[in-house]
Predict the 3D structure of the following.
Amino acid sequence: MTHLLVLPFILPLGTAILLLLLRPYKLARCVTICISGLMTLWVNISLLFSIQDHGIQIYRLGGWAPPFGIVLVGDLLSGLMIVLGSIISVCALFYSFDYLEQDDQQQIFHPLFFFLWAGTNGAFLTGDLFNLFVMFEIMLMSVYALLTMLGDKKQIEGGIKLISMGLLSSVMFLTAVGGIYALCGTLNMADLAVKIKPHIDHPLVSAVAMLLIAVFGLKAAMMPMHFWLPDVHSSAPTPISAMLSGILIKVGVYALIRVFCLIFVDLQDYFQVFIITLACITMFVGGMGAVAQGDFKRQLAYSSVSQVGYILLGVGFFTVGGMGAALFYTISHGIIKSGLFMAAGFLKKMRGTTELARHGSMIKISPVFSLFLLIGVAALGGIPPASGFFMKFQLVKAGFEGGFYLPIAIALVVSLFTLFYLFKSWQQICCMEQEEAPIKMPSRNLLIPVGILALLALALGFGASPVIDLTQAAAEQLFAPEQYITAVLGAR
Amino acid sequence: MTILSIVFLPFAASLLILLLSPKLQKLDVGKTLGAVVAAVPLIVFSLIISLIGQAAHTFHIPWVESYGIELSFLVDGLSILFGMLISGIGLLVVIYSTWYLSDKEDKVKFYIYLMMFMGAMLGVVFSNNLIGLFTFWELTSISSFLLIGFWYHKEASRYGAMKALIITGFGGIAMLAGFVLLYAITDTFDISKILTMGDVIRSSSLYVPALVLIFLGCATKSAQFPFHVWLPNAMEAPTPISAYLHSATMVKAGLFLVARLSPAFSGTAFWTCLVAGAGLTTMLVGGVLAIRQTDLKGLLAYSTISQLGMIMAMFGFGTQYSVEAAIVHILNHASFKAALFMVVGIIDHGCGTRDLKYVGNLKKDMPHSFKIALVGCLSMAGLPIFGGFISKEMFYESALHIPFVTVPGLIPAFVVFASIFTFAYSFKFLIWGFFKEAPGHPPKHAHEAPMLGWISAAILASIAVLLGVAPGLFSHSILEPAAAAVSGQPAHLHLALWHGVNTPLVMSLFTVIPGTFLFLRLNKVTAFQSKIAAKLPHFNPNFLYNRGFLGGIPSVARRSLLQIQSGYLKRYLFMIVSFVITAVLLFSLFKGWTLSYDGLTAAGITIPQLLTFTLIVCAALATIRFKNRISAILSLGMTGFLVAFFYVLMGAPDLALTQFLVEAISVILILLVFYLVPPYFEEKTHKTAKSLDVVLSVFVGVVMTYYMAMVMDSHFTESIAHYYLEMSEKLAGGRNVVNVVIVDFRGFDTMGEISVFSIAALAVYAMLKLKKKPKLGKEGDSGL
């Protein structure tokens, strides 16, 4: 048993505590952040490689054998998600140094950020349903704290919405977990999968599954549970918006995939039409919402809703191709969207607002910014060779292979809207004449993570092959849940 | 390797200029940059020439092997013809633009975009993989977007750029779907393999959808009716760009793809109906609209639409001869149309306007431009001795022999009718522009451009003449291989001006005479057209785009969004809860969840439990009914304490103790907080809303009660709890099992929950320390 698997949780958690202790020492904090941020990234990447080489990995916390103790499980899906999370986190951390100008803000921001990171990694790695609930709580609380810490009116309002709907989802989660524990007498997901299989057609199992769809759908901003997202994503401090859209909503998608590809495998067909319908509505409503926005950050937030719809659509096909497409979509969207949010943050710093009408002339003010924004916009719009193209392509291919013509038609129509609102905003931000002078020029360092993410989006397009192979392998692994069960419970 | 340099040299040039741009912007690059850039198309052109006559060969770079996606390239007659057009006209356009762009223009950006476009366009024509082709295809859309919006401060430029992007983007999306369907039929993206599978494709059930979707891509790109509306607005681009992208090359990409895929798709009635139908309609619509234009560039734009339709129709006819005719006309059109565009640019520069209301009688002031325009217009009108005449005769000839058309004479009559307009607008350009005096005066006194300005156009015009008088120069080496690549059979072209008196010649006569008549009555006809247009303002695809897409969708979206995203938390919660509970109920009902009382009785309810339960309900109701906050809080606390009492009854004293503590603390905390809030509730909720709330609450309560009761009733397997009871002391050394579970068996959970508390504490600390000036308003956000 290697301890590598617990590091993605322990490292950020320890860092968070250390940062609280080091509060008065700015330099020490910076060094700590740099070292442990990069270390977590490195650990996560090496974990992914080790999963790829040695198969699914298990860590028994406290040495208790499953199903009695809690296990951490690293399969390809988890590995991919934690790597995505750490890439975005490292960029967001780097961004936060220049974004939060006052040191007392950073003193609180960074520990909270590491708590959030720990919770995210924990959620991706845990093999226990109740522990997943705990990780959700960590994430919810830290997002709430990060959202409201600056005390802006909009942020408090978003915070109230977040915490109310978050608590509602916690209640539903607990109801589901309580129900499933009463039924099966266990909380370990692999064990649950084994024990629930003979009783899969019991009505209560469907009730629990539906409750979990609601819980994870709320996290993932699936219609009609997406209401919290636009307010929260648009009002959060930019590094957090990037984290929220880049990785946190994907936690919901991840959890949905996990339970439906492990515990409720035999209910896939039963819920398929439901999930696909909701995915289509999510896509459409999010797209329409984004078209209607006059504020860039809100537009990006709605766009995230819409894009989550695409990911859920891929999941809803319940085929290897669809799942692979959804995973690639998740990774690619995470990178592109967090970059776009950071670009929006640059605008916010410049003029104190992200309202589109107040911006313009960026092509003159900062051609580099315009270029990065164009790459991001084109990538999300699905223009090849950027990675966004492969998101769309794989989804269409998987959809046609599965015979889902109508959902794909809707997806394609919405992708035209996507192209429309993104390029319109680009025109507004970069091309329109803007007489009003910027309040101040933000630090150019803010553009470094934006550029890195934009180039990553391009690189993920040019070098799509290994990532596509990896996501396909992850999808295949998901559709062979015996692997996971055997890895956790041993050969039976 | 040659093919790689052909495609990637322009991209490399673009990237190099991009990387050097900070330096170049500072230096005063002037015309030097243009001269350096001109080397790129020159090299590419000569490389392509060197490929002529070589056997078709391919080259590929792997991209995504698991999907059969690669960047592979195919050199055959068709790609060489297009490659020569792209690089050759590209060279002339670069030369022309060194004159056209004044020193204050951002030349660096111009050449970055232009080189990117050239590379993308070459990529399209040389691609041997559908996805590779699609990649380059979309890049041409992006570079066209950037080039149309080159003068980005102008509203019209941005509008035109967006329109082009949306319409071609729509086609691109459809085309991608079509390619994937084609992949479903053929299991490959490799074009040369697909071309050999024509029979499989035509007999497939996916043939029609695949063809329609791919054709949508071609039709939008090549500005076929009703997607032609983007092209006139694209004329906001600098004139070199209009000449290059929007007449000679990019708009022919759709034709190219139709030609490229025609061995796989053509030869069915559906193909002819779709492709030729779209082409002929476009030809007529473009011609009819072109005669109306007074803006010379607008005239050329509509004329381009019409000519593209004509070529599309020839590919649609699908005979060997019509394909040859189409190939010949592609070359002709590129030569005369690009030349005419350049002339318009010269007129625009020389007079300060290009509107026929203000410019006219330029014959003397612009002698060189006049000669070029003369050649261009006569070739466009299809008069001998120019190339346009030959291809128009071929067009007529091919229209006489169309498969799948049963009505004799219908198509020939139609093409003659449509060509009348071609004749008329060609003469309008020539006569109104160079002979007739204009009603108004141009802002500047007309003057000719220097040689750098007209030399490119002159070269193109001489090619147009050569195509007429010595077509044999091109036919064997360039045109025949191209036609052969499209039709799949060896082509033998006998191009000549004089074939004796035959049907096409008679048809030409029937074009020229009414054409002249139409031209002489042009003012009356256009006045009539304007009257119709004024009466039917909505009868126009532009209306659909402007009001439907640009205006309509955002406003509909805004209105419906206000309904969904109201900003009120209460409404959100209501919608989520009612949705989730309904779904839970339905999904369980469908699985056979019967509403029986078995569960309730199985739980074994006792009298004290029932009493406590009743009290809880009363306390909860009281909480809602109290108008006084303090009483409401206290009765809320009451429910909590009663729940704790339930635990006592169920035999869990430790849990009850915890619950008592939690409840006591929260009541005290809430009381402290509400000390600052007015003591009475304000009644704000509407009555219906309130009753809805009641209904929902009761509904949730009932469903949840059933859920719990059923859960109590069904146990699939034995719980793992016995393990904890047995092992707690033995393995973990603790007798209090609950404690052992919390700190040892599931200690990880506890660590997480402790973190949650720390974070909450930190959140409070942050809010107190970093708060600005909290001004909590009552209004919700509008959701926008």
Notes: Residues 522 and 528 of chain B are 10 Å apart (CA to CA). Residues 720-784 of chain B form one domain. Chain B touches chain A through 108 residues (CB under 8 Å).
